[in-house]
Amino acid sequence: MNCPRPHLYFSSLPRTAVSRHPQVLLVGSHQPRLLKSLEGWPKHWPGARNFLIKFASPDAEALAQLPSNGFDLVVVGGEAQPVNAELIEQLVRVARQGLISLR
Q1: FRET label pair with 80: which of 14, 17, 30, 103, CA 20 to 30 Å apart?
Q2: Of 25, 49, 44, 45, whose CA–CA distance to 35 is shortest?
Q3: Which domain of life is it from (predicted)?
């Protein structure tokens, strides 16, 4: 008997993919502006969430001390100038899901 469609089995998402308490790294010196950027994020999650927030200075040496894939989201303030390739590399290394860049 031939089966024209293969059977597909999808594994469930790991628990780390949907964290109950997402870790957020805020990079910059103006902390109130960085915290305001998280207002209303994300709206599609059911239930309450507590953010675990850490602040860091906008230099690559400080970010090199942080673990790889240690944060669900990284928010970079507009005062993180100049943005060079080394800083971008460190930001992408520590972020699991994405980056938000503020102007």
Answers
A1: 17
A2: 25
A3: Bacteria
Short-list 20, 56, 16, 53, CA closest to 38: 53
In a domain, 8, yes or no: no
Domain that holds residue 90: 20-38+48-56+67-101
Question: Is residue 73 included in any domain, yes or no?
Answer: yes
pTM, two decimal places: 0.70
Q: Hunting for tokens 């944060």 — which residue is that? A: 71
**Cβ atoms of 43 and 70 closer than 8 Å:** no
- Count of C-beta atoms within a 10 Å radius of residue 77: 20
